[in-house]
Amino acid sequence: MKKSKVNPADNSIAFFISPHGYGHAARACAVMAAMRELNSSIRFEIFTTIPQWFFEQSIPGTFTYHSLLTDIGIVQESPLREDLPETLCRLEKFLPYDQSQIASLSKEVNRLKCRFIICDISPMGIAVAQKAGIPSVLVENFTWDWVYGNYVSTDFPTDKFVDYLRKIYNCADYHIQAEPVCSYQDADLCTVPISRQVRYTSMQVRQKLGVPDGVKLVLITMGGIPERYMFLDSLAHQSDTYFVIPGGSQTMQLFDNLVLLPRHSDFFHPDLINACDAVIGKLGYSTLAEIYHAGVPYGYIPRSTFKESEVLEAFVKIHMNGHAISESQFQEGGWMSSLPEILALPEIKRNNANGAEEAAQFICKELSIKP
């Protein structure tokens, strides 16, 4: 597709981000932070319903937040289970796009003097960019047409949405895929996993958490979707190991060997991962990417009904040190018997660049944003 022209005098960029969990926002934040490293004058206009605090914690410098439902994605009953009937109901109301809304948004991004729109993985941003006459950049490891195509059945008739969204995705001016890639396309760039960068040392984070020297530290995380943990009492028996659990409490609390954190805490998620000896959690993109770069062992919980999970698990088996934990093992606490085996897995030292840097360099070069 012919690349649209941009005005090199403006450094305002719009970002349309899927609200499906926090993974897409984490990846988008990593790219934005890396772009700011290359040019501190870049201004970001962020369109999403992911909470504003997430971006305040993740992106250096200022940005403007626009609360906008950019995507339906897959509605979740829990971190590991999808609600397909509710997803279908919301898709019916959301697609095709309201063209008056697309026109209004295109006027808004033009008013804001946005040079282009980056999408992770919301196709709405591509439609808005087309209407506004500015370039679009798609960043993904899967797209919604691919996901819906794997669910199509008489109970989930999404064929029309698959065709509609695929046409929009194909209109992106620039296409970046980030490993682990679910469906390889003729993209402009394919990067290693994209993750946010660590800010504090392992020792600094452990001291702030109140974790004694010489003990093992394990992070338990289910991403951005709330979960009830039924096994917390059993963790007290693992006296030689401390556990840190984001979303485990409304306030930061320490009980014996448990460190319970609110979902929105002063601790940066990549720092927590880097400070731990192992991570137990849902198999999701941003968690995988952050663990990949930290090099720590991963006790991962696949999502049997979500197609992306197969690709992520295959990547872990080849490129990371991991151990699979079933949904029932996790919920019932049976995974604790495997914890010594997980903690015994060696760390992996990474020397390669972060995919965020690769993506930022590509975008700034192709769209003429000079240092």
Q: Which stretches are poorly predicted, pLDDT < 50 over at least 5 residues?
A: 1-9
Instruction: Look up the CATH topology of the largest domain.
Output: Rossmann fold
Shape: globular
> Helical amount among residues, as a percent range?
25-40%
CATH superfamily of the largest domain: Glycogen Phosphorylase B
Instruction: Compute the separation of the termini in Å.
Output: 27 Å
Name the beta content range: 15-25%
- Please describe the biggest sheet, giving its number of strands, its sense, and whether it closes into a barrel: 7 strands, parallel
The count of strands amounts to: 16
CATH architecture of the largest domain: 3-Layer(aba) Sandwich
How do the strands line up in the largest sheet? 3-2-1-6-7-8-9
Number of helices: 15
Return the structural class: alpha/beta
Q: Could you characterize the architecture of this molecule?
A:
Helix 8 packs across helix 10. This protein has helices at 23-38, 52-58, 84-94, 99-111, 124-132, 144-149, 159-169, 202-209, 232-235, 269-275, 285-294, 308-319, 327-332, 339-343, 355-366, and strands at residues 12-17, 43-48, 63-67, 76-78, 81-82, 114-120, 136-140, 174-178, 189-191, 216-221, 241-246, 253-255, 258-261, 278-282, 298-301, 322-324. 46% of the residues are buried. The chain contains 15 helices and 16 strands. It is globular. The chain is α/β, with parallel strands linked by helices and 371 residues long. It starts with 11 loop residues before the first strand and ends in a 5-residue tail after the last helix. The protein has two domains: 12-196 and 355-366, Glycogen Phosphorylase B (Rossmann fold); 202-343, Glycogen Phosphorylase B (Rossmann fold, 3-Layer(aba) Sandwich).
